[in-house]
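Q: Got a minute? One more chain.
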Amino acid sequence: MSNKNQANEALILLKIQTKEGVSFNDKVKAVTSFNEKGVFDVLPQHENFISVIKDKIIIHTKDGIDKEMKIDSGVLKVQENEAHIFLGITETSV
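A: Always. Here it is, folded:
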């Protein structure tokens, strides 16, 4: 039973929101994305963090499956072992 508890502790809540609503809301092992400095991972117990993200999101599920989602851009905010990604809210003009 302690192995199961340890597995639960090694997760972070990921919530992905679009203009239409919440498209993903579950605990995951990690999230990988890209910003202006390159690729980065958000792991459980990550320090508070906010970044504009681009290109894609890779969700590392608790079942060991990697789900890739292509994006244009978004905002990722990590706080208190929760990662929130907001997509389709940024408007860019040239």
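A: The longest strand covers residues 21-35.
Q: Perfect, thanks.
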